[in-house]
Amino acid sequence: MSSGRLDIVGLGPGPFEWMTPEAQSLIEKATDLVGYGVYLDRLPAAPGQARHTSDNRVEIDRARAALDLALAGRRVALVSGGDPGIFAMAATVFEAIETGDPRWRSLAIETHPGVSAMLAAAARLGAPLGHDFAVISLSDNLKPWKAIERRVKAAAEADFVLALYNPASKARSKPIHDAFALLASVKPAETLVAFARAVGRLDERIELTTLGAADPSIADMSTLVLIGSSQTRRIERADGGCWVYTPRSYR
Amino acid sequence: MSSGRLDIVGLGPGPFEWMTPEAQSLIEKATDLVGYGVYLDRLPAAPGQARHTSDNRVEIDRARAALDLALAGRRVALVSGGDPGIFAMAATVFEAIETGDPRWRSLAIETHPGVSAMLAAAARLGAPLGHDFAVISLSDNLKPWKAIERRVKAAAEADFVLALYNPASKARSKPIHDAFALLASVKPAETLVAFARAVGRLDERIELTTLGAADPSIADMSTLVLIGSSQTRRIERADGGCWVYTPRSYR
Predict the structure, then answer these.
(1) Percentage helix, strand, coil, to 5, in chain A?
(2) How close is the nearest chain B Cα to the Cα of A10, in Å?
(3) Which residues are CB-neighbours of A34 under 8 A, at least 6 positions away?
(4) Model confidence over A132-175: pLDDT tens digits?
(5) Are B115 and A20 a contacting pair at CB < 8 A?
(6) A248, B95: Cβ pair inside 8 Å?
(7) CB contact under 8 A, A114 and B109
(8) How far apart are CA B116 and CA B80, in angstroms?
(9) Contact B94 A235 (CB under 8 A)
(10) Which residues pair with A225 in a beta bridge?
């Protein structure tokens, strides 16, 4: 059995203050860091530590490379933004293992939780995820649009709050428009909608609007979209701002 | 305007290594800590810092007390386990504000994200939340059972992974049995089910089973229940254990 190990680690949404002490410690102890360049760039260089950066579009290759390094006896930290278990690298690693080198199954492999983008976005707004919610990736790269549509519709009809990941990319602008058209056919126009972009980073921008007034084309790869339930509401603050929350009780 | 402030802070699921540096810093800076006893007991005593413990059943009173302390000019940290925005104190604070003293609306009040119990439970298993999922509280203290039932059914029919919070308490054992009966009528008996209890704490216990074989009576207040989608699967490890994950692609 190999002495190598693979820790799948989430850095949180951006700032150091949202990275867990565990993630920090695992990154320090690793002989090799593997990840998308923008995530590795957040981490200070450490003497003797190897870095393997890769483009975001080859996730399964990155997972395989990390597994091979661990098999060669290295101590590998595979880093993601947010939480690695939410539409991120953890599932990719297990996909790779399922169809890959059987020796990978003897490695010490652990996933470690982090603050996910939806929790950070919700915190900025107040407490919009304070009650039942559904989390859906709008990327149709790996699943048929029909499956996405069915879930968006079911979640809207059952009055869940919705958190939409991967709403759009440069190559993929249609899903978010289709999803909003579908939502508008099920939910009232006054439903609260928030576009939370790059929360915790310097270019953070939160746009609060309604389903009737929303322009889905402002969503990009760094945007998390939150759609309220029938109970989600705003509270006006004395300074002209507001908080958004979903109460625990259902009227 | 009062100089007081209220920070709504999550400690994460238990261990210090999952508490964000931000939460730690806010707790250190607070003049007053407010929270349920078991959460405050996790934190070291600090000289000059006041502690206001309360029983878990009076959440709205605890929120009001924290708001009044802030109004009196104190710097208050209201602490929850996990993430304060997920079925926890943040929504309770905004409920209190909506119907309470109008002066509370002029306070500096911020929610701060933490590692939620579902992210910790998922990490321990591998990556069961790697694809679309729905998060439902089974507590019928504040919402009618009909609303819960409708959401569990909709989420099961649309093939979401499910994360069930508050599955049972000493006074409330029926909902989890009713939810499992409903799930068994919609989903195949071989669907993977995990009961993740007290993840990250000394009495952590994870029970992996199937919908057909599950005994829902093992769930208690400290248990997070995960129900797989049709795609959620296990990968056998060389040591006899397994990982559980939900792939990104939908077949």
Answers:
(1) 35, 25, 40
(2) 11
(3) A52, A54, A62, A65, A66, A69, A76, A77, A78, A79
(4) 999 999 998 888 999 999 999 999 999 999 999 999 988 888 99
(5) yes
(6) yes
(7) no
(8) 10
(9) yes
(10) A164, A195
Phi then psi for residue A54, to 5 deg, are: -150, 165
B29: closest CA among B52, B10, B48, B2?
Answer: B48
Same domain, A235 and A127: yes
Q: Is residue B26 part of a domain?
A: yes
Cα(B37)–Cα(B53) distance, integer angstroms? 5
Mean pLDDT score across all residues of chain A = 95
ipTM above 0.90, yes or no: yes
Residue type, A142: L
Please say which residue of B48, B81, B115 terminates a domain: B115
SS3 B91: helix
With respect to residue A177, please indicate whether it lies within any of the assigned structural domains.
yes
Give domain status of residue B107, yes or no: yes
Tell me the residue range of the domain where A216 lies: 118-245
Contact A114 B116 (CB under 8 A): no
Enumerate residues 6+ apart whose C-beta is below 8 A from A94. B126, B127, B130, B235, B243, B245, B247
Instruction: Give the span between the Cα atoms of A12 and A82, in whole angstroms.
Output: 4
In which residue are the tokens 């009001």 written? Answer: B64
Cβ-contact A78, A11 below 8 angstroms: no
Q: Give the count of Cβ contacts less than 8 A between chain A and B.
A: 248
Mutating which of B1, B19, B22, B233 best tests the A interface, going by the most A Cβ atoms within 10 A?
B22
Kindly report the backbone phi and psi dihedral angles of residue B194, in degrees, each rounded to the nearest multiple of 5, phi listed first.
-125, 135
Chain segment A93-112, per-residue pLDDT in tens: 999 999 999 999 999 999 99
- Is the domain of B145 the same as that of B198? yes
CB B132, CB A134: distance < 8 Å? yes
Nearest CA in chain A to B114: A115
CA A16 to chain centroid, in Å, comes to 17
**Triad B109, B115, B121: Cα angle to 5°:** 145
Question: Quick one: closest CA in A to B242, which residue?
Answer: A105
- Matching residue, tokens 């209201």: B78
For A120, list phi and psi in degrees, rounded to 5.
-70, -45
